[in-house]
Amino acid sequence: MPFFTDEAHAVHTADDVREAFRRASTAQLAWAALPVERRAAMVASFSRLLHAHRNEALDLIQAETGKNRASAMEEFADTVLHAQHVARTAPALLRERRHPGAFPVLTHTIERRVPKGVVGIITPWNYPLTVPVSDSLPALVAGNAVVLKPDSQTPRIAEFALALLREAGVPQDVMQIVHGPGAELGEVIVECSDFVMFTGSTRVGRILAEQCARRLIGFSAELGGKNPLLVLADADVPRAAAGAVQAAFSNSGQLCVSMERFYIHTDVWDEFVPEFVDRVKAMSLGAGTQWEADMGRLINERQLATVEAHVEDALAKGAILLAGGNARPDLGPCMFEPTVLADVDPAMTLYAEETFGPVVSLYRVDSDEEAVRAANASEYGLNASVWSRSRGPAIARQLHTGTVNVNEGYAAAWGSYGAPMGGMGASGMGRRHGDEGILKYTEAQTIASQRLVPMSGPPELSHRQWATLLDTAIHVLRILR
């Protein structure tokens, strides 16, 4: 069983971070020299260990975030399954590959994947197990060392995961955690990293991207979203209403791929809206580890204040409240009811700005084309949801988002680990999951070996003779290729 000390809550200085990177850089050489199968076996062992410690993981997630038990379980299951996916797919993905050479037989060309070195990873508080682990494991299995900075509000679950990784065999200096405010440690992490992976706000992502660009190091980020949900005229309305509740209010709406904007076709508006609102009103809020609560609390008072401000601003400017709208201190700190608004317009803050809480706005549309235009009218492009019996895939292809879920909110695309996940526009750059989720932590190196005849031609031939022979070879290669 992992053991925790006060060290898990220590605040590190910039010099501490530099020392962690120094140790990581030294340890990374031996780690990269291990066969990828051995590194993958440790990841698989971690997946088994985590699964065996389910209740401890759930308790820690809830204790640090206040999310309900069901949302904690979703996070736990995702982490276990993604770890197993990485362990299973990495060896084949990272093996050396042979490519056609410049000249058949004469040129032998291979591609190999070289780890970046030491990867700096900065993660948020809303998914304190899934995000640190799902970003760290691909970097580790690719042969990198990792220095992770979890959010200051969720240190213990990250330390819990680190303890299991070390139990699985990952050497101490290969995976390290540093704690402290991002505003103080972010710049030094960029200064020391060979690659940076960040999950958080678009504002901070832009700052880090600029810092990485100055150093010419790689950068990948999942950033903000104002995700649209489209209910088309041919939607299965009861199914859509039930799915929309999960899509909007899982983890109290503190999920970058959750839905905040609903575009509902006028033909189903009168059926969908009452059913959805009734389902929202029936949701239960609660604190603690019981399974019955449909939604837990917000992370802190600052997030509660943001949610309250967005709702109050909308109502003051004419929005209509259909459900919720109130803080619930009687149920516990930072509790806010799942909230549904209509008649939201561009003058209101929540129209275009990410709320990152349990608040959705409903908009009536007269056609699929209008729904698509409205959904795409945002600087963000992270995730979208389309509900339709027959037109979902066709409409999905018209949306400018990194992932689109048809007849689901977010889990179908997120849980398809073999496919890439990430944002367009202001929602990020690079991808996690899929091949890119592992390969981005490597550099591609090509090694071409020439034999018998040099590329410049044999010395006994003149330039003209070699040009004639080369021209004939070009003709043959054009046909063969």
Could you list some keywords that capture this structure?
7-stranded mixed sheet, 18% strand, disordered N terminus, 481 residues, 18 strands, globular, 6-stranded mixed sheet, alpha/beta
Characterization of the model:
The protein has 481 residues and is an alpha/beta fold. The chain is 44% helix and 18% strand. The chain has helices at residues 14-33, 36-52, 54-65, 69-94, 130-141, 155-167, 182-192, 202-215, 237-249, 266-281, 301-316, 368-376, 392-396, 411-414, 434-439, 463-480, and strands at 97-99, 107-115, 118-122, 145-149, 175-177, 195-199, 218-222, 227-231, 259-265, 320-323, 339-342, 359-365, 380-381, 383-387, 403-406, 424-425, 428-429, 442-450. The strands form four sheets. A seven-stranded mixed sheet has the order 10-11-12-9-8-14-15, sandwiched between helices. A six-stranded mixed sheet has the order 5-4-3-6-7-17, with helices on both faces. Helix 7 runs parallel beside helix 8. It is globular, with a radius of gyration of 26 Å.
Quick description:
The protein has helices at about 15-35, 35-50, 55-65, 70-95, 130-140, 155-165, 180-190, 200-215, 235-250, 265-280, 300-315, 370-375, 390-395, 410-415, 435-440, 465-480, and strands at about 95-100, 105-115, 120, 145-150, 175, 195-200, 220, 225-230, 260-265, 320-325, 340, 360-365, 380, 385, 405, 425, 430, 440-450.
